Amino acid sequence: MKQSGFTLIELLIVVAIIGILAAIAVPNFMNAQTRAKVAKVHSDMRAMGQAQEMYRLDWNTYTENHHDSDVPLHAGLYRLTTPTSYIGALPMDPFYTNPIMMADSWGSTQQHYTFGTEPDWDPKWDRGGNPSGPATRWLVASAGPSFSDDSNPVFEYPGIQNVVWDTPGRFTVPEYPAASFRYFRYNPTNGLNSVGDILRASDYTSTN
Hints:
The chain is α+β, with helices and mostly antiparallel strands. It has one helix at 8-59; strands spanning 114-118, 137-142, 151-155, 170-172, 179-184, 198-201, 204-205.
């Protein structure tokens, strides 16, 4: 009895078809994952924003930031969880992957979202600095699909330096009287995986 099987050419055709289907399916799958992560970031930021507003109703201030070299940049957010739970737990930035890429200037990796306030001196965290009063504005930032921190601090201290610059495509939020932080704003119209941070502030929401 003669047995038939696939010829080498037929096998190569099957492999080629599978490769073509994979080339179509994998990018679509990866893009769907990125869109889901972006949606999670916006959801997390809305929750943290609502928690900040509830905190302010009780304390007449947002959870202040700090410039203590021993404290990571998201530390002020922990006051939203304890002793009063304004939010169940601090969410992680889904775009955090590489501790080296996401290390802040103090060497602390930013698994959580980056957080800042205006004013940003807090006597509970700072050792030696002069507190500047209750925090009246807040900012939360995600690394975005580029998986990198795309902020650039520009300090504008009168008498020392007065650096004022604004490159097209950059966005400043919030405007600090003593120190301004410029951000590349993420916008999916530039490409789903384009460079830029996803931002939310007390008076600003980044593009979905």
